[in-house]
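Our collaborator T.R. sent over the components below with a one-line note: 'Predict the complex.' Nothing else. No constraints on interfaces, no templates requested, no preferences about which chain binds where. So this is a plain run: every listed entity goes in together, and whatever single assembly comes back becomes the starting point for the next discussion.
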Amino acid sequence: MPGAPHIGDRERVILTAIVETFIATGEPVGSRTLARANAEGLSPATIRNVMADLSDAGLLEQPHTSAGRIPTAEAYRYYVEQLSGKAQISPQDQSIIQDSMHGITNVQEFMERTSHVLSLISKNVGVAVATGGSRNALEHVYFSRLGDQKVLAVVVTRSGVVRDRVLRMDLPQSELDAAARFINENFRGWTMDAMRAEVLRRIEQERSEYDRLLNSVEQLYRQGALGSEDSLQAVFIGGAANLVAGEKDRERLQELLQTLEEKQKVVQLLGAYVDAKQEAVRVVIGLDDAIPSMRNLVLIGAPARVGDEVMGSLAVIGPTRMDYQHTITAVSYIARLFDQVLNESE
Amino acid sequence: MPGAPHIGDRERVILTAIVETFIATGEPVGSRTLARANAEGLSPATIRNVMADLSDAGLLEQPHTSAGRIPTAEAYRYYVEQLSGKAQISPQDQSIIQDSMHGITNVQEFMERTSHVLSLISKNVGVAVATGGSRNALEHVYFSRLGDQKVLAVVVTRSGVVRDRVLRMDLPQSELDAAARFINENFRGWTMDAMRAEVLRRIEQERSEYDRLLNSVEQLYRQGALGSEDSLQAVFIGGAANLVAGEKDRERLQELLQTLEEKQKVVQLLGAYVDAKQEAVRVVIGLDDAIPSMRNLVLIGAPARVGDEVMGSLAVIGPTRMDYQHTITAVSYIARLFDQVLNESE
DNA sequence: ATCAGCATTCTTGAGTGCCGAGTGCTAAGC
DNA sequence: GCTTAGCACTCGGCACTCAAGAATGCTGAT
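Returned assembly:
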């Protein structure tokens, strides 16, 4: 990567043209093809010169000596950057989304449909992750003995997420009820973490009084009944079938599909790249840093939030060769929709 | 299909050998190969004769004039039939299953892991569906206002399945609480269906008294809060990536993956073929009747039950060319495990 | 600077010929 | 009468060659 010939106007136009025709055709683009298609009226030879410069700058690659040029990851980054997000979502996409989102019953369902819709629109893999664990405010808990040693814990958060979990413990139903009542009366609206801290504090301070009760609660915590975010994660993946069209190498295809089935990895991926704090759509080109098997893939993601609370994230994963503009607007639109649908009356 | 040469001992042995070597190699099996492998000491010529008979009986096919023979669906059916289910599960499989099933927290999770484990063991697609809606006994309900017009309904069944749903209605919290209390006190242990019938009956009879309360409950029913089984279905599919190895035709591969993503179809498939009443493992060869895109696939499934209650079903879906014995024992083992794990203390 | 032309490189697809595996049939052997 | 060996025939697949097409880099002219 020698001193970049600081990309001027002509270079930018040509690079953009290369990226776009490569996205469209999938084949290495040569100087002649470009000269023919490009209205700029430049001759192939000139274009070749520019191409050579761009190759030096590390923006283009040649698969073989006598083949056309292919954009590098860097070129895509550049391309996406100068792709001002001014595009509006198309009416077709909008109606696809409206249709699919009809009659949503809960967050999980929204996420599931989202993954599906994103895959439809982008013709790639749609991903939606519902996280939002301990930061959510508690609304209600309920415990119930199931069998011999088993207790069912149900936790409802204020944002309407329900989570259940079977624990193994032997507290009698009476104590479970007492614990539930205690929690519901004292800690409604608290976050799980804050609540735990408070319980621990009280155990320290007022040991004598609440003793049994607080210990029950602490025991429930320890079993994960009220617990930390990771167990609440639900991952929805739609359109994995679309990878078949894009990936020629069978082994790699299989590897990719396998990776997608490991939900944990997908969560980790979104967690790493989708910035919860920021509302913006994030485009990450080249996922090999995070997950080796996803080399050459691109992630276009955004956080899903209701008000200020982050409920999860959504994304499209696809090959570098995808319709960025289109996908970005779709992701952005659904991310906004999420807030609208779940915040107020639909 | 002329008069079947009623399959004798020799025919059976040869057919079995053909099926097994075809499963092993994936290539059309010819008379010579078979003669070499088969200890029976028959000459290729003899085998050719038998093969011709089996072809006439519609049990074998030739892809091309001078290729070997391939078993037809009918042949697989015959093969599976005479495959007495005497095989024990292998220790390796057993330990894979034990490892994966460790620390199960609820039915959904069991199903998810099951689909994964089945895919691992069978090297095919593992499927698990949690159904079991209205037939389950009610344990507890809870309603909570979420926002403007929205109410969150949480239903816990006696078998430990939790279900939540956001409804659009405008009952005030006080009435919701009253309805919940009423239901929890009077109908714990009832099935959803029986409960609804009773509510309707009372509305008729004792109109005056409970009026408002009963009407709230009925309204909740109408919104599906306490409702019919279909919305409770959760479908888990594992190992879809395994299809890549088995299916050469890319288009068909894509079609298959797409079909698997349509959860409804999968539910319908299991519903059609896995007999809830019967405990046995069911092997269905040739799924094209139910779902055209699944032509040539095989389903090996069993119901998942806790005691007498059917909680769902589990299955392996794969190409006709699979290890039947192995898969059948695995499916059967996990089906039994389901009862054990969820019924009593683990 | 820009562009035309030329020699060069490399991929791709078509065409060819050959080998191996399998079949069906007929005739000989137990 | 069942079993087997032998023979002629049919295909699919592989290796190989060859020509066409596309793109490149360079050089020299405008």
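Summary for T.R.: Residues 1-5 of chain A have pLDDT under 50 and may be disordered.
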